[in-house]
From TrEMBL:
One of its GO terms (cellular component) is Golgi apparatus. PANTHER family: UPF0658 GOLGI APPARATUS MEMBRANE PROTEIN C1952.10C-RELATED. Keywords: Membrane, Transmembrane, Transmembrane helix. The chain crosses the membrane at residues 12-36, 56-78, 85-104, 144-164, 185-209, 221-242, 249-270, 290-310. This is Uncharacterized protein.
Length: 364
């Protein structure tokens, strides 16, 4: 019988996060059902429909974040990546902030999204207040349970991540040698790899959030959404490839493009939070907080990506390559290259050079 690749703590972690995500999905699905049941009681104005659709999109983003967390966890366990496990904890804490924003958005829908809407009475609900009271009493406790679950699981996941970090530490030490420069370069590379994955998620969620702004009055939303998706996908693909294959010049291109993207993020943050004249429609009136939250997190992540990208580029120019010489995390290393051999030349060693050639990876 084949031995499992996951340790006992790893199995507990994976099982826990799967159960957690399934539980949150079930609770979130209930909120969506109540949300829809409440909205169909009204013939909404275009603005009210924009608010309702934005809420549904936020539910979709929440589901996407749960899938992302499971994939993140599986990859972290397979590659023995303790950095990504810690990032998973941070990601889960950010989900708590998102859950809080979602509660606020529902309050907006209930109080302002139905203003000017035509109510459709029936035998069960005679007035808009009857419908609002009925669904709020059912939705709000579930939303608070979701927020409490996220907070509790974040603490629990922190403990599991700490245990796994200690477990993976020795394995990574054996794989990436006792050479301090190599170990530091490995940490920088894994941090950069993790940041790229987080960048991808927040770029996607930002682009998705532009859709309801179009319904509320933002005329450039669709064009900008498509542009963000295309450019974000290309930039993320380049970043992923440059890190995974340790292609330093492609990484340099990514660093420069990330610097340009910071200007766009600042421009959008200013635009979203600028005062709107009283006689014009404010397209961000009901989406401003979550857009600002997403862009602010993305700004911090991109800044960190640039910083660690520069560190990794510097390491590569000094001939310190990690995955190319020692193999990817979690994979078996058969190169048997000693630290002394690696120090013999700036480009690692003749044997490492042969490994690069045989795997058809160009370091230049």
């Amino acid at each position: 019988m084949a031995k499992s690749k996951f340790s006992l703590v790893g199995k507990i972690t994976l099982s826990s996060i799967v159960i957690y995500c399934l539980a949150l999905s079930a609770l979130e699905s209930l909120v969506v059902v109540y949300h829809h049941a409440f909205v169909v009681k009204f013939i909404l104005t275009p603005q009210g429909k924009g608010i309702s659709d934005s809420d549904l999109i936020y539910h979709g983003i929440f589901f996407l974040s749960l899938i992302y967390q499971v994939a993140f966890c599986v990859y972290s366990l397979i590659t023995r990546n303790s950095i990504q496990l810690m990032a998973l904890v941070v990601f889960n804490i950010l989900s708590l902030a998102y859950a809080g924003v979602q509660i606020y958005q529902h309050i907006i829908l209930e109080e302002e999204g139905t203003i000017g809407a035509e109510f459709k009475p029936d035998d069960k609900f005679k007035t808009p207040e009857d419908a609002r009271d009925f669904f709020v009493k059912r939705m709000r406790p579930i939303e608070y349970i979701i927020a409490s679950l996220v907070l509790t699981f974040s603490i629990y996941l922190s403990f599991l991540s700490y245990k796994l970090t200690k477990e993976f530490g020795w394995e990574n030490y054996k794989t990436y040698t006792a050479d301090l420069r190599v170990r530091k370069a490995y940490v920088s590379l894994t941090i950069l790899q993790t940041l790229v994955k987080l960048d991808i998620f927040f770029l996607i969620t930002y682009a998705i959030q532009l859709v309801p702004s179009k319904l509320i009055g933002y005329s450039r939303s669709i064009f900008e959404t498509v542009l963000v998706f295309i450019i974000g996908f290309l930039l993320s693909s380049l970043a992923w490839y440059s890190v995974d294959k340790e292609m330093k010049y492609i990484l340099l291109i990514v660093i420069n493009l990330c610097c340009i993207s910071l200007a766009y993020i600042v421009y959008r943050l200013i635009g979203i939070n600028s005062p709107v004249p009283d006689d014009t429609i404010d397209p961000y009136q009901f989406t401003r907080r979550l857009l600002t939250f997403t862009l602010s997190v993305t700004f911090v992540l991109v800044c960190a990506t640039i910083y660690y990208g520069i560190i990794c580029f510097r390491n590569m120019t000094r001939g310190i390559y990690i995955y190319t010489v020692y193999g990817l995390p979690g994979s078996k290393n058969d190169n048997n290259i000693s630290p002394d051999e690696i120090r013999k030349s700036k480009r690692a060693s003749k044997k490492a050079e042969l490994v690069r050639t045989s795997t058809a990876i160009s370091l230049d």
